[in-house]
Amino acid sequence: MNVMRTARPAGMGETEWQARQDLAQCYRIFDLLGWTELIYNHITLRLPETGPGGEPRFLINPFGLHYSEVTASNLVCIDLQGNVVGQSDWPVNPAGFTVHAAIHAGIPQAHCVMHTHTTAGVAVACSQAGLSMDNFYSAQLHDKVACHDFEGITVHAEEGPRLLAAIGDRPAVILRNHGLLTWGADLPSAFALLWTLNRACEIQLAGANLGPCIPIPEEIRAKCTRDALQFDPRHGAGRNVFEAMGRLADRRDPSWRS
């Protein structure tokens, strides 16, 4: 991200500090968009540097803070089991990392996982019909959306294999009766996907009383997905829009940098 950065804490590597600032900024973007659920829900990011024993490490929001209070320094570093690594003044929500851990562990390219309970997202997740692929935004998600059946509050690790089987290689997930989730190789790609999925749900919810949608043929949906700029690496794969939203969040409150 092309922003001024505060000095990193003594003993912390530059790559971890950059990852912390990027993730903290992402939490502020979610707050700006209203994608918050009191102190609940999560965005997790795999750290580029592994722990002393070579084990992967992840960043997650402190349990008890609103997204508007998340900063680079108060993000919590955890291992794949959700145990806090190093020092933290805050705990971790046990329900928060169960689903994320399964995806991080089971999908090698899933370096970032995002989960929301937006009104539109939960409404579509609860719908027997599911996501309609017949609006401008859902048409850009051809063959990208998976669905996973609701099994209750996500605190049980044994759900992980069933979740992974439902996801396959699809990076956008509707957790039935629950909400939306996306994963990606980095924050911008996961964000672009989640924004598109949530926007598709918003349009579907807004038009729910207007009768059936005009169908979009599958070949047109496939073309829309190929042509979508926010997923195209030649156009930043979401990075440009992520940075633009980051600038908006920064002007609102730059304290995420600390």
TrEMBL record:
<dbReference type="InterPro" id="IPR001303">
    <property type="entry name" value="Aldolase_II/adducin_N"/>
</dbReference>
<protein>
    <submittedName>
        <fullName>Class II aldolase/adducin family protein</fullName>
    </submittedName>
</protein>
<comment type="similarity">
    <text>Belongs to the aldolase class II family.</text>
</comment>
<dbReference type="Pfam" id="PF00596">
    <property type="entry name" value="Aldolase_II"/>
</dbReference>
<dbReference type="InterPro" id="IPR036409">
    <property type="entry name" value="Aldolase_II/adducin_N_sf"/>
</dbReference>
<feature type="domain" description="Class II aldolase/adducin N-terminal">
    <location>
        <begin position="21"/>
        <end position="205"/>
    </location>
</feature>
<dbReference type="InterPro" id="IPR051017">
    <property type="entry name" value="Aldolase-II_Adducin_sf"/>
</dbReference>
